[in-house]
Amino acid sequence: MSERNASEKEIDVLPVFQTKNERKAYYNKIAPFYDLLAERSERAMREAGLAKLAALPGERLLEIGFGTGHCLVELARAVGPQGKVYGIDLSENMLAKAQDLLREENLQGRAELLCGDAEHLPYADGTMDGIFVSFALELFDTSEIPCVLAECRRVLRPGGRLVVVGMSKEGKAGLMSRTFEWTHQHFPNLLDCRPIYVRRALEAADFRIVDAEVEKMWVPVEIVKAVKEDG
């Protein structure tokens, strides 16, 4: 058994079955309808994550997997005219939707968005005050998650904070969780993400956890705030 398969068996996290190109095509396809599919159900969890991040005027913040851009709008308002919000997403169509929303809110000057892969963040070391990730880390395969979090550590300044909102394996799996995972395993073209252990992943990446809770959507959701220690 490979090291990767042994690790997945140990923590009982399913792999991601689609390639990145397939994931990109999927989100390009559903971008026009994403808010109808997910925004209402996910909004409360995202808002709780934004509250933990507690964006401040003048900060430089990054959102990974910004989707249709609702959190970018909140972050851009919070950092004010002296701050800057950056965003990276795999989907070109999501980027277009987010840019449209920022223009509607007259906030496009406070945001710089890119289409790209969070395993290779195009930002300099120590340049971000905070990073926000909501319902995106669980889209990465098990072996990719440490790479994404290592990149987060690299671009955060010492003392910078990372908030991750993600579907969770913590606690006893209920019927909805089991059904979700079964669907992901058998129909990955319909459900391309799966529950993970958010806090454990951040701890393994050498972040210091300062706040963590498990909330209930229709599956458990972890909302975790962590800090990059000095040095």
Description:
40% of the residues lie in helices and 23% in strands. The chain is an alpha/beta fold. The chain has a single domain (3-227), classed as Vaccinia Virus protein VP39 (Rossmann fold). A 7-stranded mixed β-sheet has the order 3-2-1-4-5-7-6, with helices on both faces. Mean pLDDT is 91; it is low at 1-10.
Task: Describe this protein with a few key phrases.
alpha/beta, 231 residues, seven-stranded mixed β-sheet, Rossmann fold, disordered N terminus, 8 helices
Spans of at least 5 consecutive residues with low confidence: 1-10
Structural class by helix and strand composition: alpha/beta
Spatial shape: globular
Helix proportion = 40-55%
Q: Assembly state here?
A: single chain
Number of helices: 8
List the strand order in the largest sheet: 3-2-1-4-5-7-6
Major pleated sheet: 7 strands, mixed
Strand content: 15-25%
Number of β-strand runs: 7
- Any idea what the radius of gyration is? 17 Å
Give the total of domains: 1
- Mean pLDDT equals 91
What's this entry about, in short?
The protein is α/β, with parallel strands linked by helices. It has helices at 3-11, 20-30, 34-53, 70-79, 92-104, 145-155, 175-186, 198-204, and strands at residues 60-64, 84-89, 111-115, 128-134, 156-167, 208-216, 220-227. It has a single domain, classed as Vaccinia Virus protein VP39 (Rossmann fold).
